[in-house]
Amino acid sequence: MKSAIVLLSLCLAGLAPAASSARYESLRQEMRQAIARGNAWLKSQQKDDGHWDDDGLPALSALALTAAAQDPGAKDSAHVAKGYDWLLRQQKDDGGIYNRGLSTYNTATAITALVAAGKPEFEPAIVRARKHLIGQQWDKGEQGKTDQPGDGGLGYGAGTDKDHDDLSNTYLAIEALALSKKVVEDGRFGDQPDLDWQAAVTFLSRCQNRGESNDQPWVTDDANNKGGFIYSPTSAKSEETLPDGRKALRSCGSMSYAGLLSLVYAKLSSDDPRVVAVKEWLGKNYTVSENPGLGDQGLYYYYHAMPKALAAANVSALKLADGKEADWRKDLGEKLLSLQQSDGSWKNANGRWMESNPVLVTAYVVLALEQIDRAIPK
To answer: Model's pTM, two decimal places?
Structure first.
């Protein structure tokens, strides 16, 4: 399990090139204070039985637990142990960790929390949860052919009637499987299934606006969209009409960072054209003021995905359209600090995708700040 924690640190933090850390020292101290205040606020919101906010969505508790487990000042607290006890009790006979459906989202987020704890006694639960998650991968057409648009991806999973795949669930599952791989790869738990990674990469390619690698009819190489990622190749939620009258799916910031992180964990190299293309799109659309393409919708999801993806991709400074480079650690860290409420929490004024929920959003931000802290060159 110790090796799994090393993997977690390396995958989330990236291997930043040598650089002066002195210029980050003030930011680091401010972020650590904000992290402590955020985790203290989350602790105050825990329910008597150990869960957070909604017992039908174990992911909310898992996010709060991961935030605490990655904070040296909070990880060994009694309330954290109580939270993990509650989370483990939600595991079902099929291995999933969920209650009111959405088994992919809840199980993936729970696996990441259990890995972050670094406790060997959690390993059997992680193994069972991995197997459940892998079983949610789509293959709707001829088996093994990825002949349907959503094949290779994951959707909401068991216990829900939302029968579609999407990049959000797929990215969370890929992240959880990558971070927990060390638990199973030494064979102590016998032969274990694995994701069909080739099919997963096909799905990821079908979520990217890049005609050279996407075989779907809606893909566009329009300058505003090329290289970026969309929510799902089977959903028209982000449909837009191009100047030539053709329908296409619009790239957005949150899904593009999710796509980048997924490509990295799928072991595509930094010079793979798909990786290069999404980094170029992110550079052209770089901002910490909004979620590009969506404004303030899903803004904190965007803030959560951004540092994970850039650190994992070993992006020390993001190259912008004008040739300059953005210091994303400083920009994002300062932005998140400026948004913290007086009680230590964060909340989005736009409530879409549950972001009016301060437990969810505070966990997102604490995790983002912890990631930035780890990514600062030592």
So the answer is: 0.91
